[in-house]
């Protein structure tokens, strides 16, 4: 069986040169594609491995960059960049559109069949693409219960799945309620999975640097959240039609 192929891709966004990770499935045919966004710290081997895993499932996957090739392991530096970004939907959309353009121009990717999957800040970018009316087949997020500008959620054209830890102090119940109220009022096909006992970034393996308070790895729920993401893609963006099944 032919192995997947990977390569780095450089592209401009947010005044920076972004360095993404593209993973291609075996074969030469066109496949459905996934835009994969990282936590606020930035693109790391965690997201690269996830993109590779999606390629093994048959998807073209692009793990996009947030910080111009940098990984922000200092919580103060990360917050100093991410908080203004999260407060600026147009900047998030610019980052998302730049990565989406790279994915759409990849010859193996079907530009009409793309989903956005993201974690934390990367998930917020995916949601903003939806609020901008981008033609996506699905949006899946973990730790990204962000709300947008009034009324713009009505432009989301696909199912939205969101996951959050029940003990996440960064995405507390009030934030969950605001997010689900926005989705419901907009008539979005939405789902929310609350993982009992989990903190913020529960899906991310432990790191060797300080983190913001409220972060903690939960290996069982990390596996469950990944399965939920894969199930969302299987429902909304199946690869079987490409494989002749």
TrEMBL record:
Occurrences of domain Dienelactone hydrolase (ranges): 20-235
EC code: 3.1.-.-
Any one GO MF annotation of this record: hydrolase activity
Pfam families: DLH
Keywords, ordered alphabetically: Hydrolase
Similarity section: Belongs to the AB hydrolase superfamily.
Protein name stated in the entry: Dienelactone hydrolase family protein
Source species: Streptomyces caeni
Upper classification of the organism: Bacteria, Bacillati, Actinomycetota, Actinomycetes, Kitasatosporales
